[in-house]
Amino acid sequence: MASSLSKNPPPSNLPLRPIPGDYGLPFFGAISDRLDYFYKQGIEKFFQSRIDKHKSTIFKTNMPPGPFIAPNPKVIAILDAISFPILFDTSRVEKYNVFVATYFPSVSFTGGHRVCAYLDPSEPKHTTLKSFLLSLLAKKHDQFIPLFRTCLSELFIDLEDEMDKKKEAYFNTISDNMSFNYVFRLICDQNPVDTEIGTKGSSYLDKWMVLQLVPLATLGLPKFLNFFEDILLHTFPMPYFLVKSDYKKVYDAFYKFSGPILDQAEGFGVKREEACHNLVFFFGFNAYGGMKTTFPSLIKWVGLAGEKLHRELADEIRTVVHAEGGVTFKALDRMTLTKSVVYEALRIEPPVPAQYGKAKEDIVVQSHEASFLIKKGEMICGYQPFATKDPRVFENPQEFVGHRFVGEEGEKLLKYVYWSNGRETDNPTAENKQCPGKDLVVLLCRVMLVEFFLRYDTFTVEAGTLLLGSTATFKSLTKATSI
Questions:
Q1: Beta-sheet pairing, 58-62 with 469-479
Q2: What pLDDT digit, counting tens, does each position of 302-347 carry?
Q3: Residue 100: what pLDDT?
Q4: How far apart are the first and last CA of the chain?
Q5: Can you give the pLDDT at residue 5?
Q6: Residue of 145, 95, 174, 124 lying closest to 357 (CA atoms)
Q7: What is the C-alpha to C-alpha distance for residues 172 and 168, in angstroms, rounded to an integer?
Q8: CB neighbours of 139 closer than 8 A, spacing ≥ 6?
Q9: What's the pLDDT score for residue 10?
Q10: Tens digits of per-residue pLDDT, 168-180?
Q11: Per-residue pLDDT, 176
């Protein structure tokens, strides 16, 4: 499926236009945009209405939460596949205290430390911490697949038990428990059930993450409660003390059982306490948090795609596993449709929808129609679902197309799949801001599909939404008739 962009690339001499849009009155403009974003329009309409109004995918606006959580809500929004990658160029865009929004949560949530995710690559500690994390992942490489298969076996038992009892199964809770167990066992070589955490690890992390991210969410309450919700969630930062004891339990367990890893951190010049807080953030916020959104999204889209795609996946997976004698890295690499389905899920619903960065210098960015000057110090906001559903790059961009990335032409489109603070075709390094676990996420999604379709022929789901992500509820599940 060739992209229209590959056939008609944008000219290099596009005219320089002033950036359209405005920020409105001080304070009140930010509040007005926040109310549009959460209540009057919703996120998709918020961006689309401004694209339509300004006839541009690059414009000025305010982004939530605004006053009083974020001191400066003004951004330059970039919403197309051509302009978006400027956010990955850390030579021109600064990531200092910038992660998923215009505000910086209190360092109380991370033991008083600015963890790696909030460091700019120009800071020496960023290179040190990210090198440590990449080294850790490399050493755990051989455990990725066998441990995940073990955890998935437990997940499928829970899934079938719930289906037997209730005739349906809410996947998110089952998936969250499995994801935390996997992360903890991978790093600490312990089942969390056998530690002080018990079965509450995922709930501890959920509360800890929610308090940091709730300024970006809405509860979907009745309209007459919008004002009260806005005041409660979007006006003042949530205090750390509400989750202090929960976070301490997770931190203490990581510290107790990751001794050899903390020894390695000291070899990188990182003190054990700081290393442990970075471990909790990376494997708790980034890894577990990413799995928490990605796995239900993957199951949702594959489930909604229907039985024909299920048959094709099952045929490919079972044929390759039989030929290769098991679920191996080589076998996974041969599954072209399975890989494409994972990429398509990441394209249509990126786990982290927004990326931010501050211009280090005057930058000229280009959309499909024009060029624009972003001035030094201005904040840039890219909303990924618009960039990864750019109709000038992807045909039928709003549709989930499982075969989209199969074949030579399909593989050319992978450079427009933005989901890990980088392109799918890029690799994380100590010098960039791409997620260190990017390749692990892709691998685990493939293994999840493989293990699923080795056991089941087809399934149906009911899709929904959460504060920050999708839900999937199994309504039917058909066991495999042949393997």
A1: unpaired
A2: 999 999 999 999 999 999 999 999 999 999 999 999 999 999 999 9
A3: 85
A4: 31
A5: 60
A6: 95
A7: 12
A8: none
A9: 58
A10: 999 999 999 999 9
A11: 98
* Cα-based torsion angle of the residue sequence 96, 97, 102, 103 in order, rounded to the nearest 10 degrees: -160
Alpha-carbon distance values, 103 to 55, 67, 97, 100, 346 (Å) = 29, 10, 8, 8, 25
Residues 62, 29 contacting (CB under 8 angstroms): yes
pLDDT score, position 475:
98
State how beta strands 74-78 and 58-62 pair. antiparallel
Q: Do residues 305 and 342 make contact, with C-beta atoms less than 8 angstroms apart? A: no
C-alpha separations of 290 from 104, 113, 167, 445 in Å: 19, 21, 28, 11
Residue 445 is assigned to a ligand binding site = no
Q: Rounded to whole angstroms, how far apart are CA atoms 234 and 265?
A: 37
Q: Where are the domains of the chain?
A: 4-479
- Give me the CATH topology for the region 4-479: Cytochrome p450 (1.10.630)
What pLDDT is recorded for position 350?
95
Residues 61, 79 contacting (CB under 8 angstroms): no
Cα 209–Cα 39–Cα 175 angle in degrees, nearest 5: 35
The two structure tokens encoding residue 151: 């955890």
User: What pLDDT, on the 0 to 100 scale, is given for residue 9?
Assistant: 56
| Sites in the chain below the pLDDT cut of 50 | 2, 6-7
Position 3 scores a pLDDT of: 56
Q: Dihedral of CA 22/81/471/44: which sign? A: positive
Indicate yes or no: pTM above 0.90. Answer: yes
CB of 120 within 8 A of CB of 95? yes
Neighbouring residues of 106: CB distance < 8 A, sequence distance ≥ 6: 237, 240
